[in-house]
Specification:
Elements: E1 2-9, E2 19-23, E3 32-40, H1 45-64, H2 72-96, E4 104-105, E5 107-113, E6 116-122, E7 126-131, E8 134-137, H3 144-150, H4 156-160, E9 181-186, E10 192-196, H5 198-201, H6 206-215, H7 220-230, E11 237-244
Antiparallel strand pairs: 1-11, 2-3, 3-4, 3-5, 5-6, 6-9, 7-8, 7-10, 10-11
Helix pairs in contact: 1-2, 6-7
């Protein structure tokens, strides 16, 4: 059985919350689906993009899950296709309305089935997995700074405070075609997944995230939002926590 909590907060500096999320409320539902998006763009375009991304990916998976074979390759393809579909919807939408031109969003999709998590990822929102006493980042940020780290130009520590930290190399809805990262990871008993926007990770250290989730799983989303706001709250903050009981 799976238990999940989610919380989204505007933070202390923004006028609107451009993050969106969806979690499967029923732990017995055969589709265990968790989605998070962090929108970007002028006016309220980021908010539109993130909502569209979450709704489109959710609908695509729910509409096609029944007919999809339940093997590893088919399920990961389902997740990838849901992101490609969401990208098309947002891209087409942005072409129809000048106010929405250039809108985009990050997108994290986690489909849990048979003790595995099927992940689709684009942008710089993140997915972590806690197993026993270890927290591991499962996704790689699609950011300019991450590229500098991979090239060996700067260190991971320098990346944390780099002025171009939020510059994305890849986002949903900006181009007609998108290539998300997709992966399958084990999700064993007692494992915990954390899906979050950068409004959390830019404000709260990974060790503090680990501590909050481990100490009080039920209250962790609220505690972490409070901590991000206490540390400055310069962006919208959204967190989903999922435990395999």
């Amino acid at each position: 059985m799976i238990k999940a909590y989610a919380k989204s907060d505007i933070g202390k500096a923004r006028e609107i919350n451009e993050d969106s999320f969806y979690i499967t409320e029923d732990p017995l539902n055969k589709i265990q689906l968790f989605i998070l998006a962090d929108g970007m763009g002028g006016c309220n375009a980021g908010e539109v993009a993130s909502k569209q991304a979450v709704i489109s990916a959710k609908n695509y998976i729910e509409n096609n899950f029944e007919d999809t074979p339940k093997d590893k390759d088919s399920l990961i393809q389902l997740v990838a296709s849901s992101i490609e579909y969401a990208n098309m919807v947002i891209y087409e939408e942005s072409k129809k309305d000048d106010n929405l031109e250039g809108m985009g969003t990050t997108l994290e999709v986690c489909l849990i089935y048979n003790n595995r998590v099927y992940i689709g990822h684009i942008g710089d929102s993140r997915i972590y997995r806690i197993r026993k006493d270890f927290i591991r980042k499962l996704t790689q940020d699609h950011s300019y700074v991450q590229k500098l780290v991979q090239d060996g130009t700067i260190t991971k520590e320098e990346a944390e405070h780099h002025p171009k930290k939020n510059m994305l190399m890849k986002a949903l809805g900006v181009n007609a075609f998108v290539e998300p990262d997709v992966m399958v990871k084990g999700f064993q008993k007692e494992d915990i997944l954390i899906i979050c926007s950068d409004g959390l990770t830019n404000m709260v250290d990974i060790n503090d995230i680990f501590k909050a989730v481990n100490q009080n799983f039920e209250m962790a989303t609220k505690d972490l939002v409070d901590l991000a706001n206490k540390n400055g709250g310069i962006d919208n903050i959204t967190i989903i926590t999922i435990k395999n009981l």
